[in-house]
Design goal:
Elements lengths: L8 E5 L5 H15 L6 H21 L6 E9 L2 E8 L20 H8 L2 E5 L7 E7 L18 H16 L2 H20 L6
Antiparallel strand pairs: 1-2, 2-3, 3-5, 4-5
Length: 196
């Protein structure tokens, strides 16, 4: 079922658990508007996990910066969701010690259900973005993009350019640098993970 590209959805909110529901509903509304109910259950569930992880990370690090949820169409079939928080450090994938554990399942669920996923530290500030893609490709279960961003020289150069723009205080250059980082990450690290 081909769906034309549609407007993206972005929501910024404080790191408080009350916002998890609003984030889920934003993604649910986007999918309803684009007539993609086939992605709804997975997209809403994974969004909830990623936003909950971001809120917990912010609370643990006393980070008050807003969390940003972005849901966009990578192409007519693939929904890409980014959840950016300002808390320093990367999320940990923990092993469950018991089926009764109340936490520790978020990244495992994202890895299991998403067609592609990862964590990117190339956004603004000290935080990170957890991202995932849904749309029906065969999963290789590795959880890694075709080309890992770890050690990517172009990523490092783009991040250095963004930091330089920050230092100069030129907001237009900062915006251009963020767009360049995001475009490179999409083109070099996310899209190659999909079969042609």
């Amino acid at each position: 079922m081909a769906t034309p590209l549609h407007p993206d959805c972005t929501l910024a909110f404080p790191p408080h658990p009350a916002w998890v529901r609003a984030a889920r509903e934003a993604v649910r509304t986007l999918l309803a508007a684009t007539r993609r109910p086939d992605l709804e259950d997975a997209a809403v569930s994974l969004t909830s996990e990623a936003v909950t992880n971001a809120i917990k990370a912010c609370q643990a690090k006393a980070c008050r910066a807003h969390i940003t949820l972005s849901a966009e169409w990578a192409d007519p079939q693939h929904l890409r969701v980014f959840v950016h928080d300002g808390a320093a450090g990367l999320p940990l994938r923990r092993r469950l010690t018991s089926l009764e554990d109340e936490s520790g399942r978020g990244l495992m669920l994202i890895e299991h259900e998403a067609d592609a996923w990862g964590v990117c530290t190339h956004g603004p500030g000290p935080g990170k973005a957890t991202w995932f893609v849904l749309g029906g490709r065969d999963r290789d279960r590795s959880g890694l993009p075709a080309k890992s961003p770890a050690g990517c020289l172009e990523c490092k150069e783009l991040v250095a350019a963004r930091r330089a723009a920050d230092t100069d205080g030129d907001q237009e250059k900062v915006t251009d640098a963020i767009v360049a980082i995001r475009s490179h990450f999409r083109d070099a690290h996310i899209l190659p993970a999909w079969p042609r």
